[in-house]
TrEMBL record:
This is Protein kinase domain-containing protein. It comes from the Eukaryota. It comes from Remersonia thermophila. Residues 42-373 form the Protein kinase domain. Transmembrane segments: none annotated.
Length: 412
């Protein structure tokens, strides 16, 4: 994929802890089985919860030990022999195709020529096809992405007693600016179609070393569609496994499934993503009783203004299927002003320093650790179980949980 300015900063890169002793042996500090992927170029660092469409792991480059996110599609594609990206490669899955389109957008809006645009969406590093050994004409799409080292916005809110108002305003500003580029800088709008808190990723520039505020990146474009694509194919659940997928969606979102606002009615265009995002954010902040904190009234006024803009978009979407959503740059500018005012009041507070330290600790807990190892405890076998039995258990687990191309090696 073409380089883009919104790539996650590579300063103070996240690293994994391991030492390769031979082609079949790695030192991690744990006795068991480790997993290599992409022909031994990466080692599985951590298995994380995937979504309806993909299995997901964090992996480490075996030479540089830098961390990346690996995704393997649960849906299989027709095998083409592609090892993209290349000038002739046409990605099969919508996520990579949409992101390639976004990376080609000019970062200039004629209505706001003096505004410097910096959209933030996740960056694909590489992708390729892994053939299915049982079905030679089918393949799984495997992709590698730059890592956001702070988890998701959902985790950030759940794991902190208080998220500073300045940080929440910063998040809204960056999300609004990114959506504005998606809607207004291309030939036609691109809708994310699944923008909830777990699809907004947190990245701490400088990693665990500095007291920097986090940045927020939009990710998981698997349901994304352009304005001209059919709205019918954006339904969350599909096929015979709809009940299972609905349950998986509920587990991922921690709430009962309901048809999201991304699905338009016949004769209308898609609703924009900001309404879905803000609805979940406001619900989470209400549960945290954020209204008691100083400065929250400024954030509440910002949310009210965005709600008015959402009402305007609802009328536009109903009346004119060819319309674009309202501009979001004014809202991004207002959010940055709220951030500046709130920061002046918060930066000397103990709670603000505690929040920054929690962020650095989250980075440390993710990065300064050995790779994932399948050991005797995970296999639930007696302590004296032969290693070959543990290895067989690990391979059975990997078949269901990893996807794509992988092999196992001994870990000590």
């Amino acid at each position: 994929m073409s380089p883009n300015i919104n790539a996650v900063s590579s300063d103070n890169k996240s690293m994994s802890r391991f030492t390769f002793l031979s082609d079949n042996l790695v030192e991690t500090g744990k006795d068991g089985v480790a997993f290599l992927v992409r022909g031994g170029k990466y080692i599985v660092h951590k298995v994380i919860t995937g979504g309806v469409q993909n299995r997901v792991q964090i992996v480490a480059d075996v030479h540089t030990k830098e961390l990346f996110v690996r995704k393997t599609s649960k849906k299989q594609f027709r095998y083409t022999g592609s090892h993209g990206p290349s000038s002739t490669d046409i990605p099969v899955d919508d996520e990579i195709r949409i992101l390639e389109s976004l990376n080609s957008f000019p970062l200039r809006d004629p209505k706001y020529p003096d505004e410097r645009l910096r959209p933030r969406w996740i960056t694909c590093v590489r992708y390729y096809e892994a053939p299915d050994a049982a079905r030679g004409n089918r393949a799984t799409r495997v992709s590698y992405w730059k890592l956001c080292n702070g988890g998701t916005l959902h985790d950030l809110i759940e794991k902190n007693d208080r998220v500073p108002v300045s940080v929440l305003a910063r998040c809204i500003a960056q999300v609004c600016e990114t959506l504005h580029v998606m809607y207004h800088c291309g030939k036609e709008p691109v809708y994310h179609c699944d923008l909830h808190l777990a699809n907004v990723f947190v990245h701490w520039p400088g990693g665990a070393a500095y007291k920097n505020k986090p940045d927020f990146y939009i990710g998981d474009f698997g349901y994304s569609r352009t304005a001209s694509q059919s709205w019918i194919d954006t339904a969350c659940c599909y096929g015979a496994a709809a009940a299972f997928e609905r349950r998986q969606w509920e587990l991922a979102h921690d709430r009962k499934y309901s048809e999201p606002p991304r699905v338009a009615q016949p004769g209308c265009r898609r609703r924009w993503d900001i309404a879905h995002f803000l609805g979940i954010l406001a619900y989470k902040l209400d549960r945290k009783r954020m209204g008691r904190h100083p400065g929250f009234n400024l954030l509440k006024e910002l949310l009210d203004e965005l709600q008015k803009l959402d009402d305007k978009d609802h009328k536009l979407a109903t009346r004119d299927p060819t319309s674009k959503p309202p501009p979001l740059l004014p809202m991004a500018k207002t959010a940055r002003e709220v951030e500046a005012v709130a920061l002046r009041a918060e930066r000397d507070m103990e709670s603000y320093d505690a929040f920054l330290e929690n962020g650095r600790e989250a980075v440390r807990s993710l990065t300064y650790r050995p790779p994932f190892v399948w050991d005797r405890k995970m296999s639930r076998r007696p302590a004296l179980t032969p290693f070959e039995v543990i290895k067989q258990d690990a391979m059975e687990w990997g078949f269901h949980e990893l996807g794509g191309d992988w092999t196992v090696i001994r870990s000590v």
